Amino acid sequence: MRGVTGEDQFGRGLLLVGALADDRGVGPRAGVGKTVWAEWSLALTLCGTDPLARPEE
Hints:
The chain starts with 12 loop residues before the first helix and ends in an 18-residue tail after the last strand. It is flat. The protein is built from 1 helix and 2 strands, in the order αββ. The mean pLDDT is 76. The chain is an alpha+beta fold. It has one helix spanning 13-20; strands spanning 23-28, 34-39.
């Protein structure tokens, strides 16, 4: 990640990913560029008033 100022138009993508992701990383890639990955835990909590919640049978 690189430092950005308020006037910079680009360069905040990995900063945002780092703030929101549970895990992230960068790896080499054949040819030009690099591989960037991120993981988010998708914990889902349903409550009784949620239309997607189904009673246990």
